[in-house]
Fold this protein.
Amino acid sequence: MSRLSVFSELWEFLKYRKKYWLLPIIFVLVLLGLLIVVAENSVVAPFIYTLF
Amino acid sequence: MRILGLSAYYHDSAACLVEDGRIVAAAQEERFTRKKHDSSFPINAARYCLAEIDAGVGTLDYVAFYDKPLLKFERLFETYLDYAPCGLRSYLMAMPLWIRDRLWIRDHIQKELGFTGRVLFGDHHESHAASAFYPSPYEEAAILTMDGVGEWATSSVGFGRGSQIELFKETRFPHSIGLLYSAFTYFCGFKVNSGEYKLMGLAPYGQPKFVSLIKEHLIRICDDGSLWLNMEYFDFAHGLTMTGAAFEKLFGGPARPSETNLTQREMDLARSIQDVTEEIVIKMARHAKSLTGAKYACMAGGVALNCVANGKLLRERIFEDIWIQPAAGDAGGALGVALSIYHRYLGKERVSAEKSGLWISMAQTTPAPYSDGMKGAFLGPRYSSEQIASWLTNEKIPFRTLPYLGLPAQIADFLADGKIVGLLQGRMEFGPRALGGRSILGDARSPTMQSVMNLKIKFRESFRPFAPVVIREHVHEWFEFDGDSPYMLLTADVARHHRREMTPEEKALWGIEMLNVPRSTIPAVTHVDYSARIQTVRREANPLYYDILAAFNNKTGCPVVVNTSFNVRGEPIVCTPIDAYLCFRRTAMDVLVLENHILLRDDQPPLQDDEDWRAQYPLD
């Protein structure tokens, strides 16, 4: 299974939920997230991990 | 038809294998990795499940995951948008986790397991609902699920009949009974997601002084049990703590730092939030009754582990009987999603114990036959007598072997002599409770047993109560309860004729001072409000465990014994004989029973234990 399939699933999901407005926001925030991942070496376990 | 259910990445990762609708194996990852509440991919648990029936991954028809990552992702983004820019720190921590792991769960599952078939995803609360209804004895029942949060839902109400489940009401994030309870857990200095049961145990030491303050400022409870939280007081939706400055101001000061002395404020807060929780649970149950008209109810989700609320719900008689999934937390989601795929997605029939006559309502006959789909929760690994003997011999560990027939009387003798006995026998339990497979036993009649077990065996806080295990046939003679509680998820009061009358001086004690006053003929398991978290045992569920209690009863006239989980504070319950032996040697336990092999503390050579083992287990 290619990782790219997640993006098509996400698109299908947004279509099904009729939440197209989330798409640009997700795009920008995930891009930002990618930068964070690239910039750091380890992920610190969050305090309230159940929520996210 | 084989389905492997998985829960992972949040807390309590687990795997469960369902074959033709029967649960054949289930285990939490923490038991193998020895990291409490381990959230990593449950590869060891999954391997164990397959090994239990000697099957390979290629024989699986489906692998199912217990919640829907994209729905959760949506909730996260909408919450960050709602609170922007306040949620920046939380976002900065959450995004790497999602980008590295949580967006690729399907990919991870296939790679980790080497599985090439279909991976399905179930809704979080539907997984809980399935774990509550399908293994329950009932042909039809109301379903209640309550936890912190899944995708959006925080609690739900539904109805199950035969093989079908329908959830028709839900409360949504951030308004959550589980997160409300966790907020108070955090504020009282306990760990979120693991310290909730400590708060519940602390409640009887306090007074409900803060109930009106909570209702006035923090929460609006509707008649249907749904609730609305005033988010001005909580930080969990956007921050990295549960409560904020407004919460501290409301309750007269900052949160209690962990491991510091408990004050009356924490005890009163514990009691107050316990009362509020019970009110919500009971209102929700009444609403479920009015919507479904069902005679019975089943429950799951972390809040369903609140056995005090469960006991109160049973006594309210809203339903004739209730059944609670023993792995009510997220671990049980693995079990629920596998059963949900089998019955709901694939439309396969379910034959309930009620329909097949293996379970009959207590209202009809007493004592009624009891059966459910959980096999007593003994769904984990077993180590045979031969395997254990071989290991003990190789390691040159002194032991003696008894025939199984003589074992119960010998263990009963140890217990009656005041000895503390670690017991590893049969399959390991699935869920947070030790039920006789991986248990530490002691004499419930001893007034010193609670403090000895807390301080020298478990190394945990002295206020924490212990639970009794009692022979099913005798439960009504010792407790104000006459039913089955095989999973230790109900509390009931000690029977009046076993209670001890308090002197005026003792009655005047309050808070933690109440702790050391014996309250009954079984003081080790009688909490300060005379309640006890009961486990009942039937012989067919666990013959050796039952026979130990029967032998103890023959010797002492008391069919009640202390049962606590086989671990020390912060350690997952032991899984293997090696885990059990190390725990035995590192504590003041007197006797270790590994199947039919007996190890005495005094016979053992010095333990070559150079490492600081307590550092392995962060305090929970």
Remarks:
- Residues 42-47 of chain A have pLDDT under 50 and may be disordered.
- DSSP finds two helices and no strands in chain A.
